[in-house]
UniProtKB/TrEMBL annotation, chain A:
Domain of life where this protein originates: Eukaryota
GO cellular component, one term: nuclear origin of replication recognition complex
GO biological process per UniProt: DNA replication initiation
Molecular function via GO: DNA replication origin binding
Name used for this protein in its record: Origin recognition complex subunit 4
Automatic annotation (TrEMBL), chain B:
Protein name: Origin recognition complex subunit 5 C-terminal domain-containing protein
InterPro entries on file: ORC5 (IPR020796), ORC5_C (IPR047088), P-loop_NTPase (IPR027417)
Family annotation (SUPFAM superfamilies): P-loop containing nucleoside triphosphate hydrolases
GO molecular function annotation: DNA replication origin binding
Signal peptide start and end residues: none
GO BP terms: DNA replication initiation
Top-rank taxon, per record: Eukaryota
Residue intervals of the Origin recognition complex subunit 5 C-terminal domain: 329-466
Gene Ontology CC entries for this record: nuclear origin of replication recognition complex
Amino acid sequence: MSSSLRHKKSMNNKRKIMKTTDSTIFRNAEIEANIESLLQLLKRHILEMKSETLLVSGFPSSGKTKVLEHIFTNLKTDPIVNDRMTIIRLNGLLHAVETPALQEIASQLDMYLSDCNIDPDLSTVPIDNLQLLLEMYISKLNKSNRCFIIVLNQFEYFAQQKLNSILYALFDTVYADKSTLACYSIITIAVSNRADCLELPEKRLKSRFSNIHIIINAPNSIDFAKDCLQRFGSTRDHSNELMAMDKAFSTYNSLANIEQTLIKMLRCCHDNNTIDDIGETFNRPNTQIHGCLTHLEILLLLIGLNIVKQIELNSGKRIHHTVDSDDEDGNDGQQINDTRITFEQVYNEYSKYILKNQKYFYDKGVVSKAFDRLKDRGLLEKHRNRYMNEKFNDEEILSFSLKCDELQSVLDSTTIPTEIRRYGKMNNI
Amino acid sequence: MSDSLPDSFKYRSLQYSTIKHLLSYHDTIPYPKQLYIFGNSNTGKSSIVKHVLESVVTKSNIIYIDCREIFSLNMFFNSFFSSFINDVDDKKKFYPKNLNEFIRKIRDYCFKQKKKQQHYFVVLHHIELLLQYDTSSTLLYILFKLEELTLDYFKYTLIMISNKSFNNLITEHTIEADLGSLLPITIFFSAYTRTELNGILQQTITTFLDLSSDQLQLLKQKISIILTLELQLFYDVTNDLIELKDICLMCIKDFLRLNERSIGDNDDGDDDIDYRLFYQKEFLTKALNSVYTRTMSVRKFLDTHDIQQVKINNDNNYYSTLNQQDVELPLTCKYLLIACYLAARNPSKYDKQLYDKRQITKRSKRSKIAQKRITGMIKSTNEIFISKPVLLNRLLAIYCSIVGENNPLTCQTYQHLTTLCSMGMLKLVGNKTGNINLNESKFLCLISYDYIKQIASSIQFQIDHLLL
């Protein structure tokens, strides 16, 4: 049994924390040095035909894949390493089970065979053994001493798969006896968004992982943005936009979102409201109900919210809603999505309302259609029963999916008729 | 390829220019990865996207899927490949059964065509419908990550069009934590304002009408006024362009019919009928209640409803053209009818016990039941009910009792009384000589028990509890 999995004395720190930026790709010399050491580690393993397991973790879109692709690109520059290396990429969402994973591996190996002008038929042959598949590949290539780098993206899904997981097949292959004609090693790189992903697999799988755990933190957003602007060939001064971006991304800087925002900014640079758009593009867009709902729809929403409020008051629940804009205890427009209502309840309340306000009297069919439009917009959602054997009523049970402060801003608008605004204020909605 | 925006989208120039700049080719700036376009229905989202793509991209690079035609994920895969693959022979080979195969086949096909690395535009219209068929709740994430999953062989921009905002699209089952780091560029299509709708409808409706240019010129102003009148009512209910187009077109057709009739009747060609008198709230509400709710087609409505005939009918108190069952009355009218029926049916000496809420106790209820037992009369619902005239004061007192204290009498209540009289449900009666005493008006209830029962059940009023 190879002891190379358990210890790496050449690495001083077993846990490396790296920041990633783009374009060199990395700006920081210390980070670059760490990346270089990882690169050397992999190179050494490839040349010495040693198997290894590493874990790379970090927030979503913090640059994990970028780091690995950069390393692989550098490895390919060495002809000897490139000749021995075969990279296979699997994703936990799709390839956690053994059979589809083997099909994917066969398909990717066929692509390598095609590049070498060899007949790619691995995916046509039904193979249910990973070791056999790899050995067939090596025999077709007619080259021994191969190193397979298997990247397991979304590793937590691999780890959570209990039955027929590809991980068992993978590690069995690592430790299996290899023939002299098909001598190969496997470097497994597990990539995950979760810091506790190593706690997820079973004990015997957990023990196969080495202590090499690389944590990647997202870089400073302005630095990354500047690198992107340089890459996109922009020579203009974008300091105002970058300041706005830094403010918008102050809580979390996803590299993908930064890149998308910059692409929009550069492509639509003729627009005057680009700076305002930056915050809007990153921040989760609101439902944009202001200006898009008719008076009848706003009235139905207010009536529904009034019913929800009455139900919750009767059931003794405490509800939080912003009554006053100056209210310091306001909870920033908490979403109301727990209490369920039906259309009939809303229509009954509507019938009482129009006794006093004949202006908004419409036929039941018209009111029902307005209600359906609210559902289409996603402001009302059909309630999903938790239990399969829970009986469904004939009436559709709905819950709200909008925030009080959004509706509050609509009520404060001058375009809303006075009677509707009065209804909202009277019922403290 | 035409670069100008069609006239029907003149109010969408900002969105058009934004989308065009995002999807045009650029040497150094890459295409956006994901674009999310949302807003009310029928606001021009998919039309603008199609127009932009056709102007900046070759047709073979556009994969357009309308998810209203998709009823399973397999259908989605097949639709995708039928747009993606041009070669007919190749199309036959690509029938993926699941997501794994779908991604693998895309990658394999792109790998074979790798010399011509193209950028595709995948448009998913009504994406919220497609996600309903996603049992694993990972489809949206996989669509976002398709380039990475196909090992960078399939380069694309994903354009999603929906009525919902992106927040509401992500259901409770999707990988929100991962998806939260992959926010698309969002473009919002706001609803048309009333002024914009007026302008669009004036343009589009005239093209639908089969009129000569001279006729159009003469009638243009009147059509514009009618549209304004219609939007005053309809805009409170709906701002959907297609819905408004249907009902407005119908009203315009009715106007044209009226116009032809009036020209035919007046030999000297005088057109001095004030058409604005006709298009009042009653007619427009009828149109809204029937055509908008799709309970009646436009043609049937035009055949059965005529603005002039309706006006004549109202003037002559002629009610027989409309079936009682089909009329949807205002709430006040319903309560007035119930009050009148109760007043006519129950003797006045029991009014205090029945309608005075301060005295409704168990004792009074027992007295009511005792009264029934003493008399020994069981009123059958089938018994012929001979209506007696009811004093206006008594009628209004009962009405106030059943409606509640918070709804005072207004002049509209009296207006509804006259409406009911004109509809033939109530009748204003006088003494034997025919003189009507306005100080003590009397009304006769002309409706049957079945109809009043139907009205009461529509507002969930337990009329049987108050009938003796």
